[in-house]
Amino acid sequence: MGELLLAGVLALLAAGSATASEPELPPIPEKSAAELFKDVPAPWRDYLIQARGAERIADPLQRCLAYPDLPGNQWPKGHVEAHCKDHQVVAMLMADAQRRLQEGKLAELDAYIAGAMVRHAKATESSEEIHYFFQQFLSETADAFTADWLRAVPDSAYALTARALYYSGAAERVRGTKFSSETPREDLRRMTQLYDLATPLFRKAIASKPDFLPAWNGMLSAAFRDSRAELEAEAFAAANAIDPGCQDLVDIRMQSLQPRWGGSYEAMLAYAEQLKPLLGKRPLLAREIAEPYADRGSWLITSEEMTSEAADVLNVALRIGSNDDALHNAANVAFNAKDGSADEWKALAYLLQEARFRDGGLWANVNIARMLVRRDPALAVKYATRAVANDPEDAAARYYLAASNYNAKRFEEAEKNYLLAAKDKDRRQASLRELVTMWMFAAGLEPRIGSAKAKPYLDQLIREYPEDGRARIYRIQSEGALTRRVSNELIQDFEKRMDPKDPVQVRFQKQFAEVIKNGIKPSPASKTK
Question: Mean pLDDT throughout 388-395?
Answer without folding.
Answer: 98
